[in-house]
Amino acid sequence: xxxxxxxxxxxxxxxxxxxxxxxxxxxxxxxxxxxxxxxxxxxxxxxxxxxxxxxxxxxxxxxxxxxxxxxxxxxxxxxxxxxxxxxxxxxxxxxxxxxxxxxxxxxxxxxxxxxxxxxxxxxxxxxxxxxxxxxxxxxxxxxxxxxxxxxxxxxxxxxxxxxxxxxxxxxxxxxxxxxxx
Length: 181
Ligand code: AR6
Hints:
This protein is of the alpha/beta class. It is built from five helices and seven strands; from the N terminus they run E-E-E-H-H-E-E-H-E-H-E-H. Helix 3 runs parallel beside helix 4 (136-150) and helix 4 (136-150) crosses helix 5 (166-180). The structure holds ligand AR6. Ligand AR6 binds at residues 21-23, 33-35, 41-45, 47, 89, 125-132, 162, 164, 168. The site of ligand AR6 has 24 residues, from strand 3 and helix 1. It comes from Chelatococcus caeni. This is O-acetyl-ADP-ribose deacetylase (Regulator of RNase III).
């Protein structure tokens, strides 16, 4: 539809920017923007748990939570994707509390975990830019920049930025264009 999906070949793979619901994508892993309990919530976390079914919550209960910036992997259950990689984004507190570093850690640790499992295709939502209040125009270059830096060295061949609005997709496309110019 219109400008989406946007695809670009970059060193180490392909980056795709789409507008849509991440629970509908069929990739090796979808990333969940969770909270430290890993026991569900609103936003994309709620949507992933609803679509995956109660087996996902049951597996999450065995994980013992997750620190901000870290990532943990589960199966995808009733999702079209085989795995869910749960990460916990930073709550925005004005930008001087290490938020950008922690957000980059979310993307980097999710990619490292996917690589450790030999996965080829992964999809990310715009972590922290909903309930956690990270400004979307500041988050997009962190997300895209971290992926560009890691892609040459890992098993992942395709990274999908699954944006929930066209405005978010434009920010990711602009970041990609700026960082690959
Ligand atoms: N597919 C793709 N993106 C989505 C979807 C979806 N189905 N639903 C929402 N988004 P948020 P956060 C977008 O709030 O800011 C939860 O309660 C949304 O528009 O889901 O990291 C957790 O349990 C936004 O761009 O995550 C935590 O407590 C992006 O996903 C807390 O929210 C992230 O928004 C985490 O907050």
